[in-house]
Amino acid sequence: MLQKVLIANRGEIALRVIRACRELGIETVAVHSEADLDSLHVRFADEAVCIGPAPARDSYLNIPRIIAAAEIAGAEAIHPGYGFLAEDAEFSEIVANSDFLFIGPTAAQIRQMGDKVAARQVMAGVGVPVIPGTEEAQTDTQKAARAAKQIGFPVMIKAAAGGGGKGMRKVRSPEDFEAQFNTARIEAEASFNNGSLYVEKLLENARHVEFQIMGDTQGSIIHLGERDCSLQRRHQKLIEEAPSPALDQELREQMGAAAVKGAEAIGYVGAGTMEFLLDRDGRFYFLEMNTRIQVEHPVTEEATGFDLVQEQIRVAAGEPLSIPAGLKLRGHTIECRINAEDPEEDFKPSPGLISAFHPPGGPGVRVDTHVYAGYTVPPYYDSLLAKLIVRANTRDAAIERARLALDMFVLEGVHTTIPFLAGVLDHPDFRSGEVDTAFLERNRAAELTGASSR
Q1: How far is 7 from 9, CA to CA, in rounded Å?
Q2: Domains of the chain and any CATH numbers
Q3: Cα 436 to Cα 107: distance, rounded to the nearest angstrom
Q4: Tens digits of per-residue pLDDT, 227-266?
Q5: Sign of torsion, CA 83 10 36 3?
Q6: Residues with active-site annotation
Q7: Is 408 helix (H, G, I), strand (E, B) or coil?
Q8: C-beta separation of 387 from 12 below 8 A
Q9: CA 130, CA 99: separation in Å to the nearest integer?
Q10: What pTM was computed for the model?
Q11: Backbone angles phi, psi at 261, to 5 degrees
């Protein structure tokens, strides 16, 4: 087993990796920006190295400084967490070439799945259903417009090198295509340094269902069940749950088998997620593969009883999978992402001093967070403050447990999404399991927030 791991990240995921390493008897090295000097991941790591000023480009995205920190600390391996450099093939390559172990897939696997057009081709090649769309990346507006007409409107324009909703546009008519394509290209170029796009059929009112994948260096690949991530805002997930209320056992087995087949096609190693869109008729289509641990991984941990971060570390160190195939999910699990944002002001970021903080507890309640009373939420990074994860025997019981936990969650000094999340849990469509990715297009966030008081 490894002796020392550097964590190339911050916030709650850095703390999560520290905890996993501690239980495995591994020392940890935290890197931090000047703005994060007082962060908990700096306090609880065995060592800490400042790698630059507050802006991420000068610290958490600065590869030479991260490699230098690993060399100075004598780390053997680097865990990227999620976000920042987690899906950067160049970073993975540099880590390996600098004689460190990258706790994640190979650079080739990251690169192949990071190119959304190439990923679609791989999946189609092994029989995994893909959404009808262009088979090659598009850079010419007129050629892309002709392809869109052949596919049939409405269509979705997506960045070939993208993710997180960047470079993505819905187009409902040919008249709007050129302007939307050019806007998406500019955004993709700015976000990913790659303006290539592709076009696919827009699936209206679809559900977003993903399967957790884990593979080892011996060639074993399994899935650990699904998570339903349909509750989203601008393609950013807000609430996740397992199992999905939209799947029966037959469909679950079909989608799980497709997820494993897709991962096997590239010999995947480590933790990853195969993401699908599920239409109203029960047909599913490959969306993308995330080659990292997900924000919502605690949903699967609570539903299966296995520590996914520890498993990541073990398989990176060359050990075989310790998780058996064919796991059955236990009860029902729901995760709510609590962000420093004001839902009544279009989710405007809300940095500042947290004056009071008291997370809920009790049976079946877990809170993953890096904040505390007196902590100042910086304006430079992602707004995630905490993840509330609850598990109960049934979905109805899990909703009630999550709703009570939100009521008892004290977090003052900044605006948060707590009242909005409570409003979503109270909504009859969510209660009945009738949620799709367009839920927040039909329901205004401000009204959900105002309706949440009990």
Answers
A1: 6
A2: 4-103 (3.40.50.20), 132-201 (3.30.1490.20), 207-450 (3.30.470.20)
A3: 33
A4: 999 999 988 999 999 999 999 999 999 999 999 999 999 9
A5: negative
A6: 292
A7: coil
A8: yes
A9: 38
A10: 0.94
A11: -60, -40
